[in-house]
Design a protein that fits this description.
It is a single chain. The chain has one domain: Barwin-like endoglucanases, CATH 2.40.40. It has 2 helices and 8 strands. It has helices at residues 30-36, 95-100; strands spanning 2-14, 17-19, 25-29, 43-48, 54-62, 69-72, 84-94, 104-106. Strand 4 (43-48) and strand 5 form a beta hairpin. The longest helix has 7 residues, at 30-36. The termini are far apart. This is Aspartate 1-decarboxylase. Its EC number is 4.1.1.11.
């Protein structure tokens, strides 16, 4: 049997931009992606703490050390600059492996989204 479990989580990052005219995705500072073990193109669930919106898109790397968190395309309508988000990825694995698995949890500085 396989179960879907949290693979990684970036907890409480601030939206730095929303670009409606970009082809959809979320741009994430590549340092945050590396710390959370998120790869380019990976599906990301986005939870907006400010308005309760939940959506899924895919990750694209932003400049390292920039703190960038930008929602692109239609997803830009679901956030406002300054909103606080939780970014989550999931993975399927055998249940016995899942019992031992530890997700990558990242808690960046909430003011600038940089690693602490």
């Amino acid at each position: 049997m396989q179960v879907e479990v949290v693979k990684s989580k970036i907890h409480r990052v601030k939206v730095t931009g929303a670009d409606l005219n970009y082809i959809g995705s979320i741009t994430i500072d590549e340092d945050l992606m590396d710390a959370a073990n998120i790869v380019r193109g990976e599906k990301v669930q986005i939870v907006n703490n400010n308005n309760g919106e939940r959506l899924e898109t895919y990750a694209i790397p932003g400049p390292r050390g920039s703190g960038e968190i930008t929602l692109n395309g239609a997803a830009a309508r679901k956030v406002a600059k300054g909103d606080i988000l939780i970014l989550i990825t999931y993975s399927w694995m055998p249940i016995e492996e899942a019992k031992e698995f530890n997700p990558s949890l990242v808690f960046p500085n909430e003011e600038n989204n940089l690693l602490q």
